[in-house]
Design a protein that fits this description.
Layout: H1 2-30, E1 65-78, E2 89-106, E3 109-126, E4 138-153, E5 158-168, E6 173-178, E7 185-192, E8 198-211, E9 214-227, E10 251-268, E11 271-282, E12 290-300, E13 305-315, E14 324-337
Antiparallel strand pairs: 1-2, 1-14, 2-3, 3-4, 4-5, 5-8, 6-7, 8-9, 9-10, 10-11, 11-12, 12-13, 13-14
């Protein structure tokens, strides 16, 4: 037992001596030569240079405006030989359109301005040489439409709005007949002109807008002024009223209830339907309202070429007791912004 104890004591002493020698050797290595700098005052050699990093100005601004524009020209044409047995008349029609819409949205306020300008003419001539009938060039499309609306949304779908709408036409419109002797078409009367009639409508009420493709206005407080600025259109003292304007006057004011529905929806990738319906019920005779429906179906052939089918239905008892309608199919070029 004593021998075992002596062995462990001898091993412990040897281990301690070996550890001391190893630490002494490591100390010498630490002092050569790299660690000597730790004993030096190096603060004088350290220089901190301040670097200014430029922060670029991004120039980000919130744009509350959106704009859309369309410029178009369309044409249709038909030609028949003089021996065409099925009958028909030669014709050519050319028209142009300009449409622009601007919209401002901030918080609950919305302002929308839309202008729609259209004008077109058609020339017809007889294909029968023996007839020698002469036809006059007539306008087949003529419209000035300018609508402005300011609205404040009190829910996600309902808003209070005020709107101002101006409607008229560019060119003079005539009534035609065939002269019995010359068999040529002649003008027998002037029935419309620029601002004759011209309609100015101010409307205040509620607007329902569930999405960006449909809106419905309920104008409980609506006033419309009918202007006949051309003396050729305004009725004389001994004539009957024209466009609801009394004889001897050029102006009429109406207070009414108005409903206006707007639809602008893509039925498919290349097919769009745009329609506007307006009901105007005069409070003096609310049972006999005016109606107007404008609808345009546009099929996109290429990025520039479109086929459009347009239709208009109008009922105003002051103008006619029957429904007036207009329809046109045309192939045209349309350039839209933004692309």
């Amino acid at each position: 037992m004593n021998k075992i104890l002596l062995f462990f004591m001898t091993a412990a002493v040897a281990l301690s001596v070996g550890t001391a020698v190893a630490q002494e050797n490591l100390k010498e290595l630490r002092e050569k030569p790299d660690t000597r700098i730790l004993n030096q005052d190096t603060t004088k050699d350290i220089r901190i240079k301040q670097i200014v990093i430029p922060i670029p100005k991004l120039g980000l601004e919130v744009n509350y405006w959106k704009h859309w524009s369309k410029f178009g020209i369309n044409a249709n044409q038909a030609t028949f030989s003089d021996n065409w047995s099925a009958g028909g008349v030669n014709s050519i029609a050319v028209g142009g359109t300009i449409w622009h819409k601007s919209e401002y949205n901030k918080d609950r306020f919305n302002f929308t301005s839309e202008i729609d300008l259209r004008y077109g003419k058609q020339q017809v001539w007889d294909n029968k040489k023996e007839e020698k009938r002469k036809f006059l060039a007539k306008k087949n499309n003529d419209r000035i439409f300018f609508d402005n609306k300011l609205a404040y949304k009190f829910t996600d779908r309902w808003a209070v709005y005020f709107a101002l709408t101006i409607e008229s036409q560019f060119d003079v419109g005539y009534k035609y007949d065939i002269d019995k002797e010359t068999r040529e078409e002649i003008i027998v009367d002037t029935i419309s002109a620029f601002m004759a009639p011209g309609y100015f409508t101010e409307s205040l009420g509620l607007e329902y807008k569930p999405d960006n493709t449909f809106s419905l206005r309920l104008g409980t407080g609506t006033a419309r002024q009918t202007l006949l600025a051309d003396s050729r259109i305004a009725p004389k003292e001994n004539e009957k009223e024209v466009y609801g304007v009394q004889p001897g006057k050029k102006f009429r004011n109406d207070l009414a209830f108005q409903i206006t529905a707007n639809l602008d929806r893509n039925l498919s990738k290349n097919l769009n339907l745009k329609a506007r319906y307006n009901l105007f019920a005069d409070y003096k005779d609310i049972t006999d309202p005016d109606h107007r429906l404008d609808a345009t179906l546009t099929a996109k052939v290429t990025s520039l070429v479109n086929v459009t089918l347009t239709g208009i239905l109008v009922y105003r008892s002051q103008e006619s007791k029957r429904i007036q309608y207009s329809q046109a199919l045309a192939l045209g070029l349309i350039y839209a912004l933004p692309r």
